[in-house]
Amino acid sequence: MNLKQPLLLLFILLSTLGFTQTSKRDQVMSKLITDNYTLAKNQYLYMMKQVPKDSLPQSYDKATNKLILNHITWWCTGFYPGSLLYIFEQTHDETIKAEALRALKVIESNQTFTENHDLGFMMYCSYGNAYRLFKDEKYKQIIFRSAESLATRYKPKMKSIQSWNKNQYFNCPVIVDNMMNLEMLNWVSQHGGDPKYQAISETHTNTTIQNHYRSDFSSYHVVDYDLETGKVLKKATHQGAANTSAWSRGQAWGLYGFIVMYRDTKNIKYLNFAKNIAKFILHHPNMPEDKVPYWDFDAGLQPLAKRDASAAAITASALMELGQFTTGKEKNEFINAGVKMMESLSSDTYLAKVGENGGFLIKHCVGALPLNSEIDVPLVYADYYLLEALKRYKDWYLNK
Ligand code: GLY
User: Fold this and answer.
1) Bridge partners of residue 59, in order along the sequence
2) Which residue, 142, 241, 366, 384, is the most exposed by fewest CB within 10 angstroms?
3) Atom number in ligand 1 closest to CA 381
4) With 70 as the cut, is the pLDDT of residue 136 above it?
5) What's the 62 CA to ligand 1 centre distance in angstroms?
6) Same structural domain for residues 76 and 137?
7) Ligand 1 pocket, Cβ-based, cut-off 6 angstroms
8) How far is the CA of 272 from the centre of ligand 1 (A)?
9) Ligand 1 closest atom vs CA 249
10) How many domains does the chain have?
């Protein structure tokens, strides 16, 4: 018998199986994207009626049935306008758009704020999306000014951007979350701004590899530096279970940040690093079957430990982008894991019904458990990253 024939048949069978799996995944995702964006529109139309003029929503207190609001310089204030812009993009609802534009105005003055490192979160998730959609030159200038403010926190001796100011716990802390603020710096350098911003972001990333990460590709939450000498004073946590533990949202921030750094620099070192972080997260023995992590991978008391749905949303969005830069089995593993996270977050366990949950989409997030803050609540950034993950699947994989 001709040997080529069975091999050809096998090839056709395997390709058909792969194709069937992908189209089944597309069917699931197509429904999730439509349903979640319809829900998001209705939820945010409901929520916006409770949002006051001068502050933006962060969470919701079920006991009092009231939104929890924050001052405009709190790190989360870019997510409400950012989510509204994602919803507008998919639904073209003009009331949603008007509220997004109003919310952008509320945080506009943050562009000159220099008291923490969160400028990227606040000003790029918001104004970055606004510029992407509307190409208004004014938004671009606000992003440029925000990058200038963030760059004031770069400390050459430490080769890092300082996250928080000196406080009772830390001298000059840098947190792994800071990887999320680099996208805005890269963007400004790549859109006619000073190349120094991307240089800062690359140096910061290299220092993060050196000082934040352990040999298993898990990350410390905080590295505290001596501002004068740049020496590492200690490696610790602020929001995790222990100094040596893997705080779940921190792992998600790191993963997302390294993927952005690869996208913006094409430095293969960052891609390999991101893949290793993804494997640490996805292969962790304490990762639950539904792929919504406990608030810390080393939380203890599993399976009773609280989940952090925000970590799943951020990871899902990051994995969608990692799928863009990988091939074959690896690509499938990353996309399928992200899809599983989106499916879980869209189940009755995690997803609110219209009018519930203060208008937020996702339930069961944890902000800072050791500080007894925001435990098992909705958090504005969980919604933002779920919406982003759904959009990414639609743009990059659906029917492709
Ligand atoms: N600092 C961001 C966070 O709490 O995840």
Assistant:
1) 68
2) 241
3) 5
4) yes
5) 22
6) yes
7) 75, 177, 239, 249
8) 24
9) 5
10) 2
Active site residues: 118, 177
Q: Are residues 44 and 70 in the same domain?
A: no
Asked if residue 258 belongs to a domain, the reply is no
pTM of the full structure = 0.95
170 lies in some domain: no
45 & 130 share domain: no
* 69 and 103 assigned to the same domain: yes
- Specify if 89 maps to a domain: yes
Atom 1 in ligand 1: residue holding the nearest Cα: 177
The DSSP 8-state label assigned to residue 207 in this structure reads: H
Taking the centre of ligand 1 as the mean of its atom positions, its distance from the CA of residue 379, in whole angstroms, is 11
Helix 182-190 × helix 196-212 angle, to 10°: 150
Which of 164, 179, 239 to mutate for ligand 1's pocket (most ligand atoms within 8 Å of CB)? Answer: 239
Residue nearest to atom 5 of ligand 1 (CA): 249
Q: Among 7-16, 133-142, 328-337, which is the least confidently predicted range?
A: 7-16
Q: Is residue 217 part of a domain?
A: no
Q: 46 with 134, same domain?
A: no
What residues contact residue 151 under an 8 Å CB cut-off, 6+ apart?
161, 185, 196, 197, 200
Say whether both 308 and 393 belong to one domain.
Answer: yes
Tell me, rounded to whole angstroms, the distance of Cα 143 from its chain centroid. Answer: 19
Please, is 212 exposed, middle or buried when counting C-beta atoms within 10 Å of its C-beta (0-12, 13-18, 19+)? Answer: buried
Same domain for 76 and 42? no
Same domain? 49 vs 140: no
The whole-angstrom separation of Cα 325 and Cα 317 is 14
Sequence-ordered alpha helix ranges (H) in 174-247: 182-190, 196-212
Domain boundary residue among 150, 169, 201?
A: 150
Cα(308) to centroid(ligand 1), Å: 12
List C-alpha distances in Å: 67 to 44, 53, 353. 12, 13, 16
Atom of ligand 1 nearest to the CA of 121: 2
Query: Which residue has a Cα nearest atom 4 of ligand 1?
Result: 367
Residue 131: which domain range?
A: 63-150
Residue pLDDT, tens place only, 217-253 = 999 999 999 999 999 999 999 999 999 999 999 999 9
pLDDT digits (tens, 9 = 90+) for 378-398: 999 999 999 999 999 999 999
Given the CA of residue 118, which atom of ligand 1 is nearest to it? 1
115 Cβ contact partners less than 8 Å away, ≥ 6 residues apart: 73, 165
Measured in Å, residue 241 CA sits from the centre of ligand 1 at: 14
Among 162, 177, 178, say which to mutate for ligand 1: greatest number of ligand atoms within 8 Å of CB.
Answer: 177
CATH, residue 352: 1.50.10.10
